[in-house]
Specification:
The complex is a heterodimer of chains A (135) and B (149). By secondary structure, chain A is mainly alpha-helical. Chain A has seven helices and no strands. In chain B, helix 5 packs antiparallel against helix 7. The chains are: A mainly alpha (135), B mainly alpha (149).
Chain lengths: 135, 149
C-alpha cells in the first residue's frame, strides 16, 4: 500500500472520529435537565414518600391500595381523575383516615405532623385550581 | 310456648317504633338528576340503582313496614347518605362535583356499587356492562363540563 494512500485513510478516520465527537456533544443539549420530570414538588414528594408510598406506589402488594391510588402512575391519570384524587388525598389526611392507624402503630415515624398535613392540603388545592384552569 | 308468646309480644310492640322516612321533596337546585337533567334512560338507571340510599328520596319496598327491617333499612340509608348524597350535589364546589362523578364511574367499574345485598331484592338496580359504560361516558362528559365552568 502506497504511503500516501495509508495517510489518506488515517485522515478520514480522524475526521470521522472528530465528527462523531461533535455530534455526540451536540446531542447532549437534547437531554432534559431532569431526566424524569417530577410529578410532585420536592416538599410534597417527601411527605408522600414517607406517609403514602409504602402502599400506594408501584411495588406495593395491596391491590386495593394501588387501585385506589398509585402515586408512581400519577402522570397517567386523566385530568378529571387527578382532580378527584387530589380532593380525596386532602380529605383522607384531614379526617385522619390515611395513613391507617394500624400502619402508624407499626411505623410511628410515618405519622404526619399538622404542618405536613397543612402543606399537603394547600398543595392539593393549588394543584386542583391549576388543573381546572387547564394548565 | 311462653317464650314464643313473649317474642311475639315483643315483635308486636316493636311495630309501634318506626324510624322516620327518607322522603323529602326534590330540591331542583340541589338534586343531581334535577341539576344535570340527563336523558331519560340515564335518569332512570341512576334513580333505580343509586337513589334509594344516596338521596333524600327513598322508594321503599313493601317489607319496610315491619320493624326491625325498617331499622335495618334506615341504618343503610343513613350510612349511604353520609358517604354521598346526590340530593346535595348542587351545593358542592366544583372539585367535589368532579370527584362525585369520577367516583361514580369507579365504583361501577369495581363492582362495589350497587351493594350485592341491595341487588338481591332490586332487580331494576342490576346494571349490565353496557349500562355501566353508558353511565361512565355520561359521568366523564359531565365532569369535563364542570371543569370548564
Amino acid at each position: 500500500m502506497p504511503h500516501s494512500l495509508k495517510h489518506g485513510i488515517m485522515k478520514k478516520q480522524i475526521v470521522s472520529i472528530i465528527m462523531a465527537g461533535i455530534l455526540f456533544l451536540f446531542l447532549q443539549s437534547f437531554i432534559p435537565e431532569h431526566p424524569e420530570e417530577q410529578a410532585f414538588p420536592d416538599e410534597i414528594g417527601m411527605i408522600l414518600k414517607s406517609a403514602c408510598y409504602d402502599c400506594h406506589s408501584t411495588g406495593a402488594t395491596s391491590e386495593k391500595a394501588l387501585n385506589a391510588i398509585n402515586f408512581s402512575d400519577w402522570e397517567t391519570y386523566r385530568l378529571t381523575k387527578k382532580i378527584s384524587l387530589l380532593g380525596d388525598i386532602c380529605k383522607m389526611v384531614e379526617e385522619g383516615k390515611m395513613p391507617p392507624k394500624k400502619y402508624l402503630e407499626h411505623k410511628p415515624d410515618r405519622i404526619m405532623s399538622e404542618v405536613q398535613k397543612k402543606l399537603l392540603c394547600e398543595w392539593t388545592k393549588k394543584e386542583t385550581d391549576k388543573l381546572m384552569q387547564g394548565e | 310456648m311462653i317464650s314464643g308468646l313473649v317474642l311475639l309480644a315483643a315483635l308486636l310492640i316493636l311495630q309501634f317504633f318506626k324510624p322516620e322516612k327518607n322522603n323529602a321533596p326534590v330540591d331542583p337546585e340541589r338534586d343531581m338528576l334535577a341539576v344535570l337533567a340527563p336523558q331519560e334512560h340515564i335518569w332512570a338507571l341512576i334513580r333505580n340503582a343509586c337513589y334509594d340510599c344516596h338521596s333524600n328520596q327513598t322508594i321503599y319496598p313493601w317489607y319496610e313496614k315491619f320493624s326491625p327491617v325498617s331499622w335495618y333499612l334506615h341504618k343503610h340509608i343513613q350510612d349511604g347518605k353520609e358517604d354521598l348524597n346526590f340530593s346535595d350535589y348542587g351545593q358542592m364546589d366544583q372539585a367535589d362535583r368532579i370527584g362525585v362523578l369520577v367516583d361514580f364511574c369507579d365504583v361501577l367499574d369495581a363492582g362495589t356499587m350497587p351493594l350485592q345485598s341491595y341487588l338481591l331484592l332490586h332487580k331494576d338496580a342490576r346494571l349490565s356492562q353496557e349500562e355501566k359504560e353508558t353511565l361512565c361516558k355520561w359521568t366523564e362528559d359531565e365532569a369535563l363540563k364542570v371543569m370548564r365552568e
